[in-house]
Amino acid sequence: SEYFGEIRVGTPAQVFRALFDTGSANMWLPSLTCEAPTCHAHARFDCAASSTCDVHDKRVTVQFGTGLIEGVTASDDVQLDDELRITAQPLILVSDERHFPSAQLPFAAVVGLSRAQPADSDSPPLPQQLFERQILERRVFSLLLSPPPLPSALTLGGYDASQLGSELRWSRVRHNSPYWQLTMRTVRVGGVPLRGCTGGTCSVVVDSGTSLFTAPTEHVREILDRLALPSLDADCSRHSLPLLEFELEGGVVTFRPDEYTLRGSIGSDSACAIGLMALDVPPPQGPLWVFGDLFLR
Asked: Does residue 225 have an active-site annotation?
């Protein structure tokens, strides 16, 4: 993901760039004890330099789609902006991220915003925790992800109505899912329903930690067959591509070709690509679609 913000951890505060991730539950950052080359690519947290840091010494491993991290549980004060400070926030101080590609990422820390219970913690998910501690009056948060260089924002406790491009629509979240998981009634390519995704048989997770759309392999193959992807060249605008429509409970979200295509590269050549990749999530959580930053912005 290319979207991140600053958080301040400890007393006195140590500053980190962080991804606000709706697809994971934990808040974690690299520890000064981490000697992996990936940790040295970013700032590392010095717990001993913080008067409010408390290490619990319980070792944990957390698996992500792009790799895994290992570390110990701890807690410390975390400031998300000038006014929002969380005392004794559960943390994972990462001691090993050799299997996580953090050196290539513009952020060092992750702030989990999913609905799942954080690993090895009795604390509720962060959005619920902020509400229960009466830090927020409403159990709501919103993300504004704009194409660079336009500003983006995370709003805790509500949303900025001035940024709405249309009427606000709501979809129910599956109550038994640890993710922000929605029912998708239909996917249409150029007005024609996708064979493998009709009648509400598909589920989708909204994940700010994923850059693209992902879908089960069989769905990706059907979409790419209809789009005739091999014929595309570097100029996406030269091709007459269809609309992509996703029908959720709250209504239909429509994407123009310029909103779901990307200009990438194949070797030394430029190429027009579709912002869709295959990802087969196994049961019981899958099969799933994932709507990443392309959807959110």
From this structure: no
Return the DSSP state at 194.
P
Token output for 72? 């110990």
Among candidate residues 144, 160, 177, the one where a domain is terminated: 144
223 falls within a domain: yes
Q: Give the number of domains in the chain.
A: 2
Block means of pLDDT (10 residues each) for the chain, 297 residues, are 88 96 92 86 94 92 77 94 91 83 78 87 84 89 89 92 89 90 94 88 92 94 80 63 92 92 64 87 87 92
Q: What is the pTM of this model?
A: 0.89
- Which of 21, 76, 96, 293 does the annotation list as catalytic? 21
* Residue tagged active-site, from 77, 96, 207, 293: 207
Is the N-terminal amide bond of 149 cis, ω within 30° of 0?
A: yes
Going by C-alpha positions, the residue among 6, 224, 244 that lies closest to residue 109 is 6
Q: Which of 268, 265, 271, 211 is nearest to 236 (CA)?
A: 271
Range of the domain at 69: 5-144
To the query of whether residue 207 is one of the catalytic residues in this protein, the response is yes
